[in-house]
Amino acid sequence: MSYSIAEAARRSGLSIDTLRYYERIKLVEPPARDAAGRRAYTDDDLGWLGFLTKLRLTGMPIKRMREYASLRHHGAASAGRRKSILVDQRTSVAERIAELQACLDILDYKIDHYDQVERKVLGTGATVEGISA
């Protein structure tokens, strides 16, 4: 199956400009061309774009993504380095999740606190507007 650049953009969630940019900076191999010379993306191309999207969502810098993309052309010989890049990124993601969990815990605590304050205030006939941060 092959997809036009517009269809690949729609399926990947990336813009056409982003697809061209990724090609230009060598994150993706130039896709095959159809008889009219238009880009023809494959399911494998879309799979790779999906993986790149996940890497970006983890906060991986483009430079590191380019390194990873370059290494994949070396096959099994580069597996160790590619794994190392992913392990490092996983550590970074886990740290960020822990930070966000701490923020979520604080928000939950404050929400619970305000629930208690509202119950007390509403129980005595006072208004909620008088509650401070």
How would you characterize this protein structure?
The chain has one domain (2-125): Orthogonal Bundle (Multidrug-efflux Transporter Regulator, Chain: A, Domain 2), CATH 1.10.1660.10. It is mainly α and 133 residues long. It is built from 5 helices and 3 strands; from the N terminus they run βααββααα. Helices cover 66% and strands 6% of the residues.
Secondary-structure-based class equals: mainly alpha
Total DSSP E strands? 3
* Helix and strand pattern: EHHEEHHH
Percent in strands: 5-15%
Shape: elongated
Q: Supply the CATH class.
A: Mainly Alpha
In total, the number of domains comes to: 1
Q: Please identify, by name, the CATH architecture.
A: Orthogonal Bundle
Distance between the termini: 57 Å
Major pleated sheet: 3 strands, antiparallel
Percent range for helical residues? Answer: 55-70%
Number of helical segments? 5
Strand line-up across the major sheet: 1-3-2
Task: Give the secondary structure arrangement, pairings included.
Layout: E1 2-3, H1 5-12, H2 16-24, E2 32-33, E3 39-42, H3 43-57, H4 62-71, H5 79-124
Antiparallel strand pairs: 1-3, 2-3
Feature tags:
5 helices, 3-stranded antiparallel β-sheet, mainly alpha, Multidrug-efflux Transporter Regulator, Chain: A, Domain 2, 133 residues, 66% helix
Structure at a glance:
This protein has five helices and three strands. The protein is mostly helical and 133 residues long.
